Amino acid sequence: MHYHQYGRRPAAYQPILNAALSHFDADAILEASRERDLTVEERETLDGCKLLRDMIHDLDATLDTMKSFAAYEEYLINVAVPLMYGSFEELDEESAGMLQLFFRVHGMAVRMAVARWTRDVMLAGWKRVDSISTDDAEVVDDISRTKDTKQEKAIAEVWESFGFGDFAGGYDVPEDVTLQDFALKHLLKGDAVGGVVVGCSRPEHVLEALRTADLSCDDGEQ
Hints:
By secondary structure, this protein is mainly alpha-helical. It has 9 helices and 3 strands. β2 and β3 form a beta hairpin.
């Protein structure tokens, strides 16, 4: 994902989030409750809408804390899906479509958040700066960077939890390079790596991997 082009969220994320929250606001039922007693079905629908809105709010609020897409999928399977099935006996086509649209764009946002977190972890506490005027800044590969001690401590704990040990150098992945391309090129540079098996779920992924491999060979890497 090229963040210099797309930013931290899909462009459609906020409009779809707002549309989903608006769809399940149950305004018609709330308005009716001011004039008469609600039926059992209406009260259940009102409760279900509140649960879904709370779930959508929580998913949005925790978006930047996502560190694993696998953990996100596990949450959907074990929490979100049971909540939806438990809230409504049946969803109308429009409501089902709205939820499907929200989870599609939210999943894209999660992938972007996970990729951003991965880049931060790989920096190992370093961060880019616009100039080298900062006293503790240094220049590596024509990139000015400085150490964020708070971030360094947090990342060190992550590296330790992964079993990677001490890691002080860090990898600065350019914003216009995807993590997949960076990882493939890094592996192809290693003398200990004789070949790389790339998992590709789509034809375009195969072409992207071949293009990256060709570029690595052009740079003198085998």
